[in-house]
Amino acid sequence: MKLVSFNVNGIRASVTKGLADSLQKLNADIICFQETKATPEQVAEALKGVNGYHVNAYGAEKLGYSGTAIASKEKPVKVDFGIGMPGHDDEGRVVTAAFKEVVVVTVYTPNSGQELKRLGYRQEWDAAFKEYVTELSKQDKPVIICGDLNVAHRDIDLARPKPNYNKSAGYMQEEIDGLDALINAGFIDTYRHLHPEEVKYSWWSFRAGARSKNIGWRIDYVLVSKGFEKKVKEAFILNEVLGSDHCPVGITW
To answer: Model pTM?
Structure first.
């Protein structure tokens, strides 16, 4: 099985940049999207050129903002939208699809924003999301969490750690603590598990040619329930796939 996660930064715009061709070439069994910036109907329309997938999408109440989706060759046994907690489900940030063998959660974690205006809310979100996936993991299927977690975990995960630490959204200690809490709850960062010392990024600012200079951040992850990492054959970051300020990440098992 192959799972790919991709923050497309607007799925309709991404389609005009070759998204359908990229997805056909990737030929993943499960494709998880973040920041679709679209309604479920618009997501379905955008993906109509990608054949053979069941599409389940979740939009934000605010049009053109946030949004997540899961496209899968196998029809899910069950699909849930949101995390079922008041105050956290109006931005379309989580889709959960239960399959025969695994449960897949795609998440677009809130950004702490300019001047860190949402850092407080971000901490509330991290705690609520950890509670949600911890409950999911009590079931009899392994849980795969994938998406844009909007945090670089360690110095190796961004090109310029010192000037950004505790100054920039995405590398605040509070955000790092949130990811640590997920890992301490029993989830494994598959890329770092299989590539402990490899420097590779999944997001680059649009400014100053950051992508061509590879001044990036690894903020897109695939985490799996402890034990399932033994079945993961490959964890990858696909820098060569364009069409967004992020690139796809994923695993095979």
So the answer is: 0.97
148 an active-site residue? Answer: yes
**Residue 219 buriedness (CB in 10 A; 0-12 / 13-18 / 19+):** buried
Q: What are the structural domains of the chain?
A: 2-252 (3.60.10.10)
Question: What are 158-193's pLDDT values in tens digits?
Answer: 999 999 999 999 999 999 999 999 999 999 999 999
Q: Is 115 exposed, middle or buried (0-12, 13-18, 19+ CB in 10 A)?
A: exposed
Active site residue 108: yes
Tell me the one-letter amino acid at 250.
G
Instruction: Considering the candidates 80, 126, 148, 220, report the single residue annotated as catalytic.
Output: 148
pLDDT of 40-69, one tens digit each?
999 999 999 899 999 999 999 999 999 999
